[in-house]
Automatic annotation (TrEMBL):
Keywords, alphabetical: Membrane, Transmembrane, Transmembrane helix
Transmembrane region(s): 151-172
Name of a matching Pfam family: DUF2937
Name of the protein in its database record: DUF2937 family protein
Top-level taxon of origin: Bacteria
InterPro entries, sorted: DUF2937
Amino acid sequence: MRFLADWLADSIRFGLALTMALGAMQIPALAQSYRAALTQVAEAGQRDIADRQRIAREYYRLPPDAPPGMVLDALRRSEPANAAGLVASAEQAALLRATAERLDRTSPITRPLVALWDGLTDDRAGKPAILRRAWQDLMPAVLLSAAPASYGLGGLIIGLLLARLLIAPLVAGRARHA
């Protein structure tokens, strides 16, 4: 019976440690997916802004190369809400681009933590929704580089600790009965 109990304890330790290691190795891939999603949303916003400015140039008979400030002035005179929406869209696109650039400047080891923290705590420009979408679109993969390996090792250690904590009451109870 002791053999089976030891085998079960070892299996739980190994399974939990391996699961945590592989799960932790996905964190850098999620950060990369989040960064790519930020760029995609910012680019889509920029295309929308360009289309809205083009339409306003045509409607107000502005020159095709009229600067954005001139377009906004024309909108503010007759459609202040539309002008405010255009400014808000531009600010959101700029914020998302700035966030993606900040992630690019961050060390590969800390980038996943910075990306997750940003996506979870910064509600501006729909970042939590972008992080959720990145999570939904994530294709699990085992990447072999410094960041995933570091996170994998951390997951392995945490998994072993959790397994030890899970099994400790069983082992302690068995030791008292022996």
